[in-house]
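Annex B. Sample input.
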Amino acid sequence: MKTLLVAEFREGKLRVKYSQLIAFAQQQGSEASMFLVGSPGDLPQFNGPLYLADVAKYGEYNPSVHKQLLLDVIAKEQPDQIVFHHSSYGWDLAPRIAVALKAAQIAEVVAVEEGLPVVPVCNAKLRRKIKPTTAQTVLTLQAGAFGLEDDPVGTPTVVAIDADAAGKVQCTGYEAAKIEGVDLTKSEIIVSAGRGVGKPENVAMVQALAKALGGEYGASRPVVDAGWVEHNRQVGTTGSTVTPKLYVACGISGAIQHLAGMKKSEFIVAVNTDKDAPIGEVANVLVVADLKQFLPVLTEKLNAL
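Annex B, continued. Sample output.
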């Protein structure tokens, strides 16, 4: 199988998450090449062909031009898969490529099982495998779903590419999302509530533990979607990506989207009634207990210190 990986260059820098693309290809034992509109001075560590277009000429994003550059590389490489990040760049460019190739597009891939991409359904409560019926497939990978055990290594074989294409869209810059209220990315201690808290009144136990630890409280997406906690406290790919010294996950099973937002925390404690919950795979300590019984006792002990 041949795979073309589409890396990203943003705000003058190569986005380091390209390693997730490499991990995806390695997991499949695929022959990989890479595409990048970027700078010769900031290249990915990758052993394989790197088709490089000059960002100074083509811009960090120009939909029509980047599409043509990529289609030219696809015509040369004839990959079975064209793989993007599930990002604003991928959301925009992947469908354009899929339509041009008349290829299947599979979005938000979180795993590969039996050689087939797996995607979340029902608000990530379930998963399903998808079998494409076209010769080529365009995929986007959920952030954090694939990762290398070590930092990527290698030196790419750079192939400069050019295209006679023009676009009507010009990227003039980026506007950061406005952060209202608490900024969890700056918190050293975070205690988060998951669906396992059971009802909105029980979020108060998570808040109390966070206060006892001198930290902030957060939440998983289902808790935010239910309206129990405001969105600026959501942790995960559709919320904040956090790296506190201590992260306490209360009643959080460990969906890929949530893990991607907190798994780089220095120390992770998970409280869950299910000893086999996915959150246990990243937790340093897994407390198998009913949080409604455990949290008040722990909070009381901390407040007594």
